[in-house]
Amino acid sequence: MGGTTADTPRPGRAVRGSTTGRPLMAALDLFGRRWSLRIVWELHGGPLGFRALRQRCDSMSSSVLRQRLGELVDAGLVRQGPDSGYALTELGHGAYEALRPLLRWSERWAAELAEIGDASGNPDVGCQDSLSESAS
Hints:
- By secondary structure, the chain is mostly helical.
- Helix content is 50%, strand content 4%.
- A hairpin with a 5-residue loop joins β1 and β2.
- The longest helix is centred in the last third of the chain and has 31 residues, at 90-120.
């Protein structure tokens, strides 16, 4: 799979923005990469093939998806099954569970911004995203 171990953020190694090797800094680097969190989010419901995952990720480029999947496989969050489908590992499911409080916070944030938007007449504040629908 595309990513190389040297490019994948890992605890104990310097990462973008930090030379400490702290696990949190490695996680922030990994999840700060474009589409990484979305891939974990989309795989929480079960294994998906490459095409299905790409469609769920708003038809992101296949090269970026390959690169991110390689990094997530290297990081131990995703595994590629014998049928070429991708699934979260136990660590990957743990990452998804860690995201759930952020989802709840983001919904409160959106609601508060919507109230501000309603009061100010700005309808763009507080838009909804499809992620909350799939979080049940």
